[in-house]
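Support request, please re-run this one:
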Amino acid sequence: MTRVVDRGAVVGAYVGIGMAVVIAISFLLVIPIEIVFLLFGFPAGLLIGYYANARTARPDGSWPRIVANGMFAAAVTAATLAVLYLGIKALFFFADDGYRDASVGPPLVCQSGAGCVYARYTADPDLGPRLRSAGVADVDAFTSFYWTEQSSNAGYVLVLALVGGLGGTLAYGVTRPGRRRPGEATDAA
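Re-run finished. Output below.
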């Protein structure tokens, strides 16, 4: 037990890191569905907020300690989700060399990195006109626009995981097993 959080909360934080890695690999690399990744922030926080307290094996405890345990693990999980999101986005942004599947067309002729990502987005019949209408007309404007959007999305997953963590913490606090209720007799025989 530490001064601020119980050992179970630290273990819960490590479990949250592992869960964030699995979610990121699953929904940003294997089956890249970004919205699913972002929405998974809430249930990930919910589970970790509850788990961190359940892991402490303390049926009785003060609300401040319960909240500290759950929110610590949720904050670590949320930060891991956000960092992984931005890291994977950076990997694909800076490593893009213009290659496209032959069914889409020939490889793009562009400067690796931001230039190729910009060329890829403007070649898309839906995204190209939308970018131009938003005032994005060159690689520098696109880079600024792109990273503003990605930072915003990282913020969303961060907030969703923290809100979920608070929900899981409160759920544990209300339903914790072995909790003594006022006026309840004890089994002292």
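Residues 7-175 form one domain. The chain has a mean pLDDT of 89.
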